[in-house]
Write a structure and sequence with these properties.
This protein folds into two domains: 169 residues, Rossmann fold, CATH 3.40.50; 202 residues, Dehydroquinate synthase-like, alpha domain (Up-down Bundle), CATH 1.20.1090. The chain is 52% helix and 12% strand. Helix 5 links the parallel strand 4 and strand 5. Helix 10 packs across helix 15 and helix 14 runs antiparallel to helix 15. It is globular and about 60 Å long.
Length: 400
């Protein structure tokens, strides 16, 4: 090894069925007054009340912010921050999908470091002071946000999804209970599952990958590849749900330490402007971007194929790489992932904003980690290609 690599993750990670019950004791170690950041869905499912009960058993006062109803925005951050201050909370519990956890991260950092979340974009402002302790509780097997030092918040003033990465945004504790994902509906299961798969693939292909992240990324790819269609078809399969949760967690640690690439760079503007859920926008882009990147990462793609299917060892690296890309298309088809046109995005509207989208994608920094680094013009062409991209092309070249 010619360089020094680093690995950051939460101080404590609890994984497994019923690990939810660790909440009260872990919160007690960190403070006496908690702010639960969640959404109405989690309240309706009874998860918020379960949190309150576990906290009550430890005599911990709690307040709730349930205003999150979309991808996380600066408005949610400011509202939750005000509630935290009003109630003098010294611990944050983020319960839900990536939107809730990313909001919790932003609130935890700003509460002690001040400023507006937009000031942290591009590391213009650094969070030098320790954040309020954050316990992250994912209820989907997707974002991996419970184990990353990344938060993605939409700036509602300019429609830019801000990807902010600093060590201070890392949760203190992650509690990953696969049972909490049983309530996830099919469309959320598919979107978040493809999101996790994208994390793992990009972590492995990233120019900043290293042996530690490679190990986690490959394990995550196989766990997700082997189980995503099963949990989509049979959401009550707790064993498959558990493997998806573990895969999402591993993918989160991997990409947090090696970074994501072009898919995420291009995905964020789609979410910010057209309000497409993050996992879906990733899936809209992943096959075409793998095709674009393939000449620069043929061997790495082949390694992925051989890891999930060792029996492919008789094929050339180029053949295996091609089959991996086709398999991603097949997964997207089987999970009913739409392209931009099928989602309802108008071609005329896309053409008006595609230049801004390309600039915003490049400004995020993620495309520079890609095996093949695109120009602004190439990103525009990729957006146009993905508008009505046909996932069925080449579907017979499957590795199954």
């Amino acid at each position: 090894m010619n360089s020094i690599s680093s690995v950051y993750m939460p101080k404590a990670i609890f994984y497994g069925n019923d690990s939810f019950k660790k909440l009260g004791g872990e919160t007690r170690k960190l403070g006496t007054s908690a702010l639960i950041i969640s959404d109405k869905v989690m309240e309706d499912l009874g998860y918020v009340d379960k949190c309150k009960m576990l906290l009550h058993e430890e005599e911990i006062h709690c307040s709730t912010y349930l205003g999150i109803d979309s991808e996380p925005t600066d408005r949610f951050v400011n509202e939750a921050l005000e509630l935290l201050k009003q109630n003098n909370c010294d611990v944050i519990i983020a319960l839900g999908g990536g939107s809730c956890i990313d909001t919790g991260k932003a609130v935890a950092v700003i509460a002690t470091n001040g400023g507006d979340i937009s000031e942290y974009m591009g590391n213009k402002k650094m969070a030098d002071k320790k954040a309020i302790p954050l316990i992250a509780f994912p209820t989907t097997a997707g974002t991996g946000s419970e184990a990353t030092d990344v938060t993605v918040i939409t700036n509602t003033r300019n429609d830019v999804k801000m990807m902010i990465k600093q060590p201070t945004f890392l949760p203190e504790v992650a509690i990953v209970d696969p049972k909490l994902t049983l309530s996830s509906p099919k469309h959320i299961t598919s979107a978040t599952g493809i999101d996790a798969l994208t994390h793992a693939i990009e972590a492995y292909l990233s120019r900043r990958s290293h042996p530690f992240t490679d190990t986690l990324a490959l394990s995550a790819i196989k766990l997700i590849y082997d189980n995503i269609e099963e949990v989509y078809k049979n959401g009550h399969n707790i064993e498959a749900r558990g493997k998806m949760s573990l895969g999402a967690l591993q993918a989160g640690i991997a990409f947090s330490n090696s970074s994501v690439c072009l898919v995420h760079g291009m995905s964020r503007p789609i979410g910010a402007i057209f309000h497409v859920p993050h996992g879906v926008s990733n899936a809209m882009l992943l096959p075409a971007i793998l095709e674009f990147s393939k000449p620069a990462c043929m061997d790495r793609l082949a390694s992925i194929g051989l890891f999930i299917k060792p029996e492919l060892s008789g094929y050339s690296n180029e053949e295996i790489a091609n089959m991996v890309v086709q398999e991603i298309k097949k997964l997207c088809l089987n999970l009913n992932i739409p392209n931009m046109k099928e989602w309802g995005i108008e071609k005329q509207k896309l053409e008006k904003v595609v230049g801004k989208m390309a600039k915003d994608a490049l400004a995020s920094g993620s495309p520079s980690n890609n095996p093949r680094i695109p120009t602004e013009e190439e990103i525009i062409e990729l957006y146009q290609l993905c508008f009505d991209y046909d996932m069925s092309k080449g579907k017979n070249e499957s590795i199954r």
